[in-house]
Each structure stands twice: as C-alpha cells, then as structure tokens.
Amino acid sequence: MVVGVSTGNGFKGTISYVQKEHEKNLEQEKKPEIIEKNNIYGNTQSMAKQMRFVANGNSRMSKPVMHLSVNFSKDEKLSEAQRQKAVQSVLKEMGVKSENHQYLIAKHNDTANPHYHIVLNKVDLDGKKLNLGFDGKREEFIKNRLQVIADKIEQEQGLKRTEGRNIIYDNTTEKGYRFLTAEEKAQRKPREKKVVLDKNLNKRNQQTDVKNEVEKVLTDKNISSPGAFKTALEKKGIDVKFSENKNGIFGVSFKTDKISLKGSEIGAKWNDINKVLVENSKAVQESKSVKREEIEKHLKADLYKIISLCQSVGSGAHVSGILKRNGFEETSKGYSYKVNEVNLLIKSDLENGIIKTLSQVRDLTAKYEERKAYEKKINQAKPLEIKPIPFLFNSKIKEENSKAEIYNKRLSQEKENIIKNPVREPFIENKDLINNYIEKTSKSEIVVNESKNKQENELSRFEQIKAQREEKSQDQDQEKRQGFRR
C-alpha cells in the first residue's frame, strides 16, 4: 500500500479533480465512486464553500487542502471492504476524527487496479489545525509519517508489505518506528530499469544477445567475482573490460566480433552487476556449511596425524610448526582451521594440550622401562647360599643364614609377583591418553571464523584487481610496441 500526499489552497479544484469532472466522456464503469462525504454535502461548489468557510476559522493556515491518494499492490487480491478499512485507517492514524473534520473519499476505477483519493480539510470544526508533524519536526515530514502509517496498516491488517521504504513501523522501539539500516537497504531488490535498445534491428538483436548472455551468466550462483564473471562471458565469445579508479571497478563494457557496447546500453551497469555478484558470493558462503559431526571427524584425524608426527620426531618436536604445516594457524582467539572450505576457529590451546599429552605418554614409557629393568634384575638374581652350621663358633654363620633366608623369601615372592603380574608395554595406556585428549579437544568450542572468511574474500578481491591491472598494463605495453613497429 502506497499513500501519496500533496497540499494546496484550492478546495474546488482538488474536489473537481478527484471526481474527474474534467473528463466529460468517461465511460460509466470508469467514473469515480463517492465513498464518503464527512461533514460536507452537495455538489463540488457547495462542498468547496463549506470547507473554505471552516478553513477561514484559522487565519494562520495558508494551505488548508490536503490531497491523499491510497494505492494497493496490483498483485494483491483484496475485497472492497478490506481496501476501505485500510483507507479509513490512514485517516485514523493521522489523527483525523470523523466528528470534527471534513473530508471526501472517492474511489477511482479508470485503471486496472482501483485506488482511492481523499480531500481533507486540515482545519477542524473548532478552527484548530490538524497536527501533521513527525518526529518533532514540521509538516514537511508528513511523507515519512505516512510511510510509517502505511507500513503499520499493512502489518496489522495482513496486507502485502511494500518494498523500498526507508522508514518502517516497529512497535518494539520507543517511538514506534525506525529507519532502515544500511545493511537492510543493501538487501533490497534493485528497481527494474527501462532499457532503450538501438532502433537499428540488426544492432538491437546483437544488443539483446549480449544482454541475454550477461543475465544468464549472473544466474549462476558460482559466478561471485568480477574475474569469474569475465571468464564465463569470454567462454561465450564476449570480451569484458572493466573501468577502474583508485576505489576499484566503476564501469563495464562488452565486445563481440560484431558489436562493442557499454553496460548501460543494455541495462547492465556495473553497480547492478556487482550487487548480483555480492549476492551470489553470499549464497556460495551460505552453501559452504559443515555439520559438527563432520568437523569432529576431520579434527580427530588431523590431530592423530600431528601427534604421530610429534612422536616420530621425539621430545624435540616443534609442535607449533607441525600444527601450522597441517592447517592449524594460531590466533589470539584460538586456532584457525578449515573443513570443506569453511573457516573455523577452535577455542582450545592445541599446542600446550599436545605437549602435555606427549609428556604424559613419555612418563608412562619411562616408568615402563624402569619396571622392565627391575624385573630383569629380579629374574637374574640368584638366591643366597644357606651355609652348614658348625658345632662351635656358629653365631656368625647363623646370623648370615638368617639374613639369607629373609632375602631368598623376598626374592621368591617378587619372582612370583612378576609371574602373576608381568610388566606390560604401555601401548593401551598411551593410546587411551591420546584418545582422551583428542576426544576432549574435538568437543571444545568451535565456531565459524568470520574474520578469516572476510580476509579471504578481501584477498580474493585484491588478487582480482591486481590481475586486471596487470592485464591492462600488458595491453598498454603491447599497444606501445605495435606503435613503435609502425
């Protein structure tokens, strides 16, 4: 729904226009219908005199006439009751009271889509001016107020929302409205521009062919950069040249073996093309999604590989370097990592985690080696000899035999313990340590690395501009050489 507005001083002329009195031969079914006369009666002249009489009650009012038009979307199928309800709501939201204001509502039927006109006296029956200010500003900003009113009616009455507004109704804000952000404006669909093709039939056909190929290429969501756009058209026999300044590309032209033309000649200005490329780029980024299960699967495999590499190098392994070579780049917020072309951020200290895990593995291995050496020593040990005891002077031998018996008993017990519980290589324990660390790390906080994605996009854009400038420089060098030859 679109509400137009104009103000003036002539009641009679406005009422006459609204009733289409100037179109004498208008067919009956196309003549306006008077929907409502509020606090006025009679013909055009009578209604104008009545409104003028009330308006003269406020000497400071120089333009008492307000002419409103209310148009609905041609794609929207509404009943007459729905349309009239919306029209009445416009007056109500403006603060117009039926008991104290004069207005005329007429319906125009001379177009495919019926629309409505309102002639309103801004001075009420008490001689007071209708407050038409907006946001603490004067009446000049009534158009902004009417945008908010129209948007509110659309939302509350379930009508089709009108695109292109810069200010909308928002009941969540303190004022009840808000202006669109730059991001919201950028997302709006560009208005279709009328393309004027050449009058020469042959040239017009050639222009149409180029235009169709450009549009076809832009429908491919994978075409998301100037370089890709240029390459795709060159495959179709259309050469693309970009015009650049210090800020980048600002214009585009096309050339075939039959015709050369600017983008504006076929409704393909660079700004419009670039908007489509940006949207395609967003679509590609959105399609580059990855599930958590897939992230964990890739992460586990890569961490196993890295830990194996560190173990093969030994205690002197440069963990941070091995991580970097295998796609883990350390940042201030964690480690940047990529899965299926999606840049991720792992919020975990991978380097210290791997170093700690490998240290625990080495400690277990060292304990195993110590225990193994001890078992070997026990197994190789022989029991002490129990000497015969002489009849005389036997106290010393008895003492030695007693110590030997104690030693032999302990040695026997240790050998039995070794037989029952032999030392095992810490393969399983080490594997459990590594598995537990990797499992814990795979469950850590992992988010999409937006800054990295943005950096890659900017780098890609830089590389495109660089390549274009290099190509342009080569063309200029070639032209100079050809000039020298001539």
TrEMBL record:
Comp. bias (Basic and acidic residues): 451-486
Annotated Pfam families: Relaxase
InterPro entries found in the cross-reference section: Endonuclease_MobA/VirD2
Residues covered by the MobA/VirD2-like nuclease domain: 19-159
Location of region: Disordered: 445-486
Protein name (database record): Relaxase/Mobilisation nuclease domain-containing protein
